[in-house]
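Handout, section 4.2: multi-component inputs.
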Amino acid sequence: MSKRLLPGQSVGIIGAGQLGKMLAQSGQKMGYRLGVYDPNSQACAFPLAHWKQAASFDDETAVLNFAKEADVITYEFENINGQILENLAQTNKLPQGTDLLIHSQHRLMEKEWLESIGVKVVPFRKAENWDQLQQGIEDLSYPVIIKTSRFGYDGKGQFRLTSPADLEQNEADLKAIMNEQSCIIEAYCPFAYEISVMVSRDQAGQVELFPISENDHQAGVLFSSLVGKTYPVAVTQAVHEAATKIAQAGKLVGVCGVEFFVTEDHQVLVNEIAPRPHNSGHYSIEACNFSQFDQHILAVTGRSIQPIKLLQAALMINIMGQHMSMLDEIIDHFPQAMVHIYDKGQAKFQRKMGHFTLLAEDIQSLETLLQTDQLLLTMKSMYHKEK
Ligand code: ADP
Ligand code: MG
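Output:
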């Protein structure tokens, strides 16, 4: 199915958080009518929408009703119930299909699928009960990271274990979790650095990659993305190959974020995928000819995606709840930055409230800034303590 939407036609977005908001902004720029669906009627994309529906993600009738107003449906929220997704796909309004979404909803299935298409990942084991968990840890040896198969994000639902004592300490929590869902045990990857790339594919099968972004996570949450560095050819080739395989095998339509670990000896392993715009691609709004949101709208509306050019080197910094009281300082200190505030209401600790992007002709100046700027170092340290 490939139908092309013309400006004036309607795109419905499931999920109205900041990703939905920035998608809606791109779509509106191109003249589309945008609808949003979210359980939270205060969600930040609601004020922008041409039509909206506040209802549970599990409310099939409401989702299908919402879809009636749309010429195509897309999503920024990944955990849509499988049956609802199937029914949405039946309406012929879901150009993204269901494959990639279903693989990425479940960390264990995701890693099994990635291996099956020849993409390298860290060694892992499945744990559905305590015996399997102990056996899996023995196979992989400490340190390991245990993650819930479903519903984890921003480091939530993860246990980092370095010794049997750590396991013992978390025994009750892990057993309670495994009563509800399976876990994945991953060998800890001693990566030299973490990178990600946004890969895009349109309905005609054209694949285009965004530039590589180097990501710094603090307490499992993205702090910064630096874009424009040069990497060893072995790394760029491996990234290109893995992202292209994922896009093609997953029949991607739109953009998909692919996160990687890179080791000291230039081994490139996929950490996870997110079949939608991704936080580490926000820099593209200011730094590229087409942003990740523009490209996604082009793909789902049946238009041709475009080759991506990085116009300037970029540094994106997240603004979390704990940084909101520093906004005036941020604006004073970086008057040249484009500061995005999502309007999400209460500024809670570790809640993504906005981001800003700095551009430069040369990557070196941004790298130095990231390493030495006092305000950035303060923002970085604030991921580790609750105020
Ligand atoms: P989330 O969905 O929360 O982003 P991730 O699996 O990407 O979950 O984990 C968040 C961060 O935790 C990663 O970006 C990385 O810094 C660290 N991490 C996760 N898995 C591993 C691993 N196997 N080895 C080393 N670090 C890891
Ligand atoms: Mg991640």
